[in-house]
C-alpha cells in the first residue's frame, strides 16, 4: 500500500506585501553624513525631508517651482539618475550654486536602483 503525503495550505494566513526598504546617504551643509531609510515610490526630496533633514526646505512640496530642494549628486552616480527635464534644468539655471551634478531632489523618483545614492544638500543660494 502506498501512502501519499498531504500538504495542507493555511487559508487564513494573511498575505502581506512589504515594500523593500533601502537607503540613501545625505551629507548636510555642516559636513555630517546620515543614512536615511528610503522606500521606493517616493521622491528623494521626500526621503530627505521625512528623514528629518530640515535644511532641505522643499517649499513648494515638489511642484517644481521653488528649487529649495537642490542637492548635489555624487558624480559617480549622476549618470544613473533619470534624465533632467527642461523645466528642472531651467529652474536650476537660476541658482548661483548650481554644479554639474546638481538636481532638484523632488524630481528624482526613488527606487531600488538608487540604493545608497549619495547626495549633498546644496548651499543656500
Ligand atoms: S520642492 Fe520645490 S522644486 Fe523641488
How would you explain this protein's 3D organization?
With 125 residues, this protein is an alpha+beta fold. The protein has one domain (22-121): Beta-grasp domain (Ubiquitin-like (UB roll), Roll). The chain has helices at 44-50, 86-93, and strands at 22-27, 33-38, 70-73, 102-104, 117-121. The chain has a 5-stranded mixed sheet. The protein is globular. FE2/S2 (inorganic) cluster binds next to loops. The site of FE2/S2 (inorganic) cluster has 13 residues, from loops.
Topology (SSEs and partners):
Layout lengths: L21 E6 L5 E6 L5 H7 L19 E4 L12 H8 L8 E3 L12 E5 L4
The chain binds FE2/S2 (inorganic) cluster.
Helix content: 10-25%
Tally of separate helices:
2
Structure ligands? FE2/S2 (inorganic) cluster
CATH architecture: Roll
The total count of strands amounts to 5
CATH superfamily membership, which one?
Beta-grasp domain
How would you sum up the global shape?
globular
Average pLDDT rating: 89
Any idea how many domains?
1
Query: Which value, in Å, is the CA radius of gyration?
Result: 20 Å
State the main characteristics.
single chain, 125 residues, alpha+beta, Ubiquitin-like (UB roll), five-stranded mixed beta sheet, 2 helices, 5 strands, 12% helix, 19% strand, globular, disordered N terminus, binds FE2/S2 (inorganic) cluster
Structure at a glance:
With 125 residues, the protein is of the alpha+beta class.
